[in-house]
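Hey L., structure's done. Input below.
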Amino acid sequence: MRLVFATHNRHKLEELQKLMPPKIELVSLSDIGYSEDIPETSDTLEGNASQKSFCVYEKTGLNCFADDTGLEITALNNEPGVYSARYAGEDKNSQANMNKVLKLMNGTENRDARFRTVISLVMNGQEIQFEGIVEGKILHEKRGDSGFGYDPIFLPKGYDRSFAEMNMIEKNKISHRGRAVASLIDYLNNL
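Output:
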């Protein structure tokens, strides 16, 4: 069965291709020649993931999944949440986003936060969603240089290293995206 992952990111695609059951041929938007803009106008992760997967399904007729991820910080009323990528501006600058969070959190004792990923799978016009969450805290300063996004300021619960201080294999075992993908793969394996 052919399944489209609504991404142009080759690294993300290859990472998931290794995890898919043999009966699934996972392809990217680039592989199917899809270059149209995909809307992300919802104010929830669930809504954005759904919007993306249905957009691709309706335009191509191919089964598809899409994801959306956000960092939710308790002391900031769960911000940046769905706006995580653009928290400090439309240019999606990770350094500026982290700097904004650290500035807003300055002097804040409650540093509880979580990363949350929602995957929307649309098969034959029907949707099912999968969620992955990892709890943790916001650090007082950036630590580590691997990973991306907010990884240098996020300390997962039960660990003494930020996501950016872990290698990709370690991070994927405990990450929000890894957990959501594991649920998706369990579902696909049981089809």
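The chain has one domain: 2-189. The beta strands are 2-5, 25-28, 64-73, 79-81, 112-123, 126-138, 154-156.

-- N.
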